[in-house]
Design goal:
Structural class: mainly beta
Shape: globular
Largest sheet: 3 strands, antiparallel
Number of helices: 0
Bound molecules: zinc ion
Radius of gyration: 11 Å
Distance between the termini: 26 Å
Number of domains: 1
Strand order of the largest sheet: 2-1-3
Strand content: 5-15%
Number of strands: 3
């Protein structure tokens, strides 16, 4: 089920699309990232930039 995560910020989660409301979070006011993972690791929501290594 889709959820929304504050990646690179406070790590907050919501089941609804919204912006981060955590005071002091560096992503406060930024939209949470949609994610559909089932593992809880939010691997699909991470912003591109990390080099994947296997
Ligand atoms: Zn946040
Ligand atoms: Zn996730």
């Amino acid at each position: 089920m889709q959820h929304f995560v504050c990646i690179d910020g406070c790590g907050g989660e919501s089941s609804n699309p919204k912006v981060c409301e955590t005071e002091g979070c560096k992503r406060e006011g930024e939209p949470l990232i949609p994610c559909t993972c089932e593992s809880g690791l939010h691997e699909g929501a991470k912003e591109k930039g990390d080099t994947e290594q296997e």
